[in-house]
Amino acid sequence: MRIAVVGGKLQGVEAVYLAHKAGWEVFLIDFNPGVPASGMCDFFIPMDIVDKGWLDPVLKDVEMIIPATEEREVLDALSVGCREVGIPFAFDPRAYAISSSKLESDRLFGRIGVPAPVGWPGCGFPVVAKPSGGSGSEGVRVIYDRGRLEERFMLPPDGWVLQEYMEGPSYSLEVVGVPGDYRALQVTDLEMDAGYDCKRVTAPSVLTPGQVTEFEKISLQIAEAVQLRGLMDVEVILHKGQLKVLEIDARLPSQTPTVVYQSTGINMLQMLAECFFDNETFFGEEAFFIGSPRRGAPGRRRQGVVYEHIKVTPGVLEVCGEHILAGAGPVRLHTDFYGADEAITNYAPGRREWVATLIVTGAGRKEAREKRDRVINDIRAHFKLDVYRDPFPGDFGTTKDTKDTKG
Fold first, then answer.
1. CB contact at 8 A, 114 and 245
2. 287-316: per-residue pLDDT in tens?
3. Whether 222 and 289 share a structural domain
4. Which long-range contacts (CB under 8 A, 24 or more apart) does 105-111 make?
5. Residues 186, 306: contact at Cβ < 8 Å?
6. What does the pLDDT look like over 25-69, one tens digit per residue?
7. How many domains does the chain divide into?
8. Which of 28, 105, 207, 210 is the least buried, fewest Cβ under 10 Å from its Cβ?
9. Residue 102 lies in a domain
């Protein structure tokens, strides 16, 4: 099967990675030839897809288009263009419109009664301020008193969500399907850097079976409420023993799909495609057809996975949020990278500064983490990196001058 991925940043890297795992050929389209996924695709087309008439001559042999961008103008152009030429477009504009607005999604959570943070002024300080249209940690800030809140915003704030600040671990779960037939996939555990950007994803989850069941129920309830067609990511925080929904995204996310694939064998991109183009000729005997009992078969391995981003500079290895990959230029997929099963990286021999996404697996969660520690230590030893930093929210990172990276 031949697909086109539009957008070559973090979502684009995810889409190309999973497409190749499915055995598909990938055209990548982006205006910027230096985007990360341009180093991973089969064919790269540098163009502005908003230009009228681009789709038919360029993509006449493409069988599906996967959006990997959040630019509204691009998504609108794709929706119209694909409809005109009859190419399946793996995108649900209605569900995306709700999930891409934190104001709209918060109203949805209240209407259907799913647990979520309390909004200001119904909560005390500190509060979290989030731009309604922001993605992930983009623009998020913590405000500790009313004086600072009034300095920053006209009250009530226009285009911002203000809600209670909660501490606790975060988790992610994807739901895929069509109205009346949804499936919750695997829960993954998220770890953030000092700027609340996700730096590490692990699986299987440390949540109890009861908490996983509760998370699945919440996620399926949201999918039904928005009448999702395709794929949606749900992120929660475990605060004082209760799961509360932080945000939803009705699109292919970055990071977690690769972890779920490595842990279970389930390829979310295949499942997303099947929601729009259900044809066994292209997906083969092991496809996860919606409504088919075969879809759960590969999900029994549940091996351990540690997926994290590192930045190497002279003498220093730092674990960072995924933003470091966005500006890394073209990246490539390497296998057996200093002991890691795979790495997505711009590393080249002789390069003193580089970044990498390390993908490490093991028989279970503990084995994967131990293997990850060996990988980090091997990289530090090989490149003589005496300083190790692994920052968490609220601090500037921990610096260690030994080769012990456990913790």
1. yes
2. 444 443 333 334 445 899 999 999 999 999
3. yes
4. 105/247, 105/248, 106/161, 106/163, 108/222, 108/225, 108/226, 109/222, 109/245, 111/225
5. no
6. 999 999 999 999 999 999 999 888 777 666 777 777 899 999 999
7. 4
8. 210
9. no
